[in-house]
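Before our next group meeting I need something from you. Please put the record directly below this note.
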Amino acid sequence: MEAYSKIHLLYLISASKVIGVSKISLKKAFKVHNFLGRMANSRFTSVDRQNQNSLWFSMFNNWYECVCMVLSSPLSSTAIAINMYRNGSCQLFVTLPLTYTMEINTNSTLILFKQLPARNLAPCCSNLSWLMTKLSTSPQISANMTKPTFLILDDNNYLVTVGYRGPLVQFNRTTLNVIQSSLVVNDATSISYHNGFYYLADCPSNCVINILLTKNLSFPIASIPITTTVVRNIAFIRNNSLMLIASNSKNQTLFFDVLSTTNYTPSTPSFMTVNRPCGVQAVNDTFIYITSWFASTTITPVSTLTYTNNTWLLSSLPNTTPTGSQKIFQTTIDSCGRLWLAITGLGIRIFDPWGNTLLYEWSVTTANKILYYNPNILQCTS
């Protein structure tokens, strides 16, 4: 946060101080478009480092050439910040990431065009108690659903789930009104989403993963036979070239090479032994969270798969071990980097990314329902 504090000092820097080192064309641009200032060895970034909505440009000799290009283009009215890197590339932000920060980076010069919101306006990352109070006291909507199994958001902006050995249901994500309910298969055990397709597991005995277009549930475009009786979560890594499948009943996380949308083949290695895998959350290509869930399974903490020296290593996060009859069904990482656990018999626990410290516990009592909370936070500020 030291870099963040330094950046705020730039609010006192006027454009005239930078004009003195700029070319004449840039001087004219600055007279029309004010900006706050620049700082060497710093960069603007989303907290998760994904920066999905940023724009990239290349082949600039210095920071003010990039600034001149932006200020003389239609992007000038929406420009928020630029990272100018030593290799000549220029990264432009025209929208704020949901969570963002400034950090020290010796390869970057940061140019800030607009004043950022006050840090205490919506402290999603820096004040978890504030966030959870905001969330737990916000308006709640519920929808009845028999044994909902996994929740996904698709490219239609629908909230989608499947009942355990029941129908696939598409909801309006903000009202929970049912858009479509369809018994696509008779023995559904899970649903996952990736790049415009549902991956729907059908497990009457041995399983088949049916791949369906989200806009056409009439028939699958491909099917993947899996020698197991229950398939749970599915995830993709390595630029969508490797698929991970939680083979719950075989105590294995399976690896499949993705040759095309309709062609999948066992990878090397073909599996890792994991106790009753259920949720699979890929943080990146080398780090994956796995939860274990089964009706009669022993209490199991979150596991991690780490790829090091061309080898997958399995380890556990013992501090995440549930108690009593509780079982961890699924995990996710929020945009602040915190680990959220959905726990049967409790509700939600939130940990630091390494699962060492319990940050918050939220008891949520529900059965055969989907709950929607709307804290109305449009932009986090710290």
In short: The chain has five helices and 27 strands.
